[in-house]
Amino acid sequence: MRAPNDWRLMNQERRLEGATLVWRSYEPANPKSDHDHCEFCQTKFMREGADTLREGYSTPDRQRWVCRQCFDDFVDLFAWKVTRAT
Q: Is 58 helix (H, G, I), strand (E, B) or coil?
């Protein structure tokens, strides 16, 4: 768990505190978009491409994405619940 003064914390609690997250392959919520970013470290999620993530944790609606490292660092602080993809 990271300290509350971690550089990656930018008021995400409004959107993600207590959220349910799903581990899945990256698929954008908006079909017109080709990528998203981790809500914390800004690492890029894409279906293909160099130096991008192809899977991670997302909200069920795929609007918010969290990389594995940030998930591990903040799971306790944000009290996330994890569920299976449907």
A: strand
Decide: 41 and 72 in contact? Cβ < 8 Å: no
- Asked whether the predicted pLDDT for residue 1 surpasses 70, the reply is no
Predicted structure pTM score: 0.91
**What is the torsion angle, in degrees rounded to the nearest 10, for the CA atoms of residue 55, residue 67, residue 22 and residue 18?**
-170
Is 2 inside any structural domain? no
For residue 62, being part of any structural domain is answered with yes
- Are 64 and 74 within 8 A, CB to CB? no
pLDDT in tens, 69-85: 999 999 999 999 999 87
Total of domains in the chain: 1
3-state secondary structure of 25: strand
Tell me the C-alpha to C-alpha distance, in Å, between residue 69 and each of 32, 41, 66. Answer: 27, 9, 8
For the chain, the straight-line distance linking the first and the last C-alpha, in angstroms and rounded, comes to 28
Q: Which domain holds residue 28?
A: 13-83
